[in-house]
Amino acid sequence: MIRQIRSHLTYANVIATLALFLALGGGAYAAVKLPANSVGTKQIKDKSVTSKKLNPATISSFKARGEQGPKGDTGPEGPAGPKGDTGMVDSSNFYDKATSDGRFLGIGAKAANSQLLDGKASTAFAGADEAPAVNSTTLNGTLTLTASVQDLAQVTLTAPSDGYAVVTGSGTFDQFGSNHSNGTADFLRAFISRTSGDADFSTLEFFTVPAVAPSGRYAAPFSITRIYPVTAGAHDFYLTGDLLSGAGVINRANITALFIKNHG
Description:
Layout (H helix, E strand, L loop, with lengths): L1 H7 L2 H22 L23 H8 L33 H6 L13 E2 L2 E2 L12 E5 L3 E3 L5 E10 L3 E12 L11 E8 L11 E5 L10 E11 L2 E13 L3 E13 L3
Antiparallel strand pairs: 1-2, 3-11, 4-11, 5-10, 6-9, 6-11, 7-8, 7-10
């Protein structure tokens, strides 16, 4: 068979056959060639274009992000979630009923230390019969001093128990109505005493105007305070005074006595 074909092949036959093939192949190529920009999404089958068939620059352009747009409106509030489990109460510092009842007094009950005040027994404080006592006497006016010691004011203090009397005598040394005379020295004295008409020099307070001082009126206030131990009962105290030389008076003589309980 092959020999018969080979015996009929000539140069002209081969060339004619090749020309026919090319003519037919060229027409097929021309039949499937598409014009530019003629293929769209409708002509491409879904999932037929893969990343391997795309240019890397094209893939990068897909991944690029544009500018962020404005924030959208807040959406509506979602439904409330389910209620959580009930928590546990820490009762580690709670008292049981018996302990709690023991911390409070019932009606008419007394605390175990009710007889104490600030940790001290009631006997450490003054009772009604030991309350501080005070008395005072003031002479509203003037009393002219003389060479003899005289009472200027007197006070009686009733002490409710043993203790102390704080006694203060005061007034003003003055020359009202009997001014100082130049050339004569004035010497006025005052005392506190427990005896009428007595000069207790341990309480002495004095006022002097020297003889060389110009004539005129001179004055000076004074105050004397002493503490005396006393027993329960009444006690008298006196503010006394005298004049050693010259002239003078005492204005508004006052004597005050205050009782303080002895807690020793």
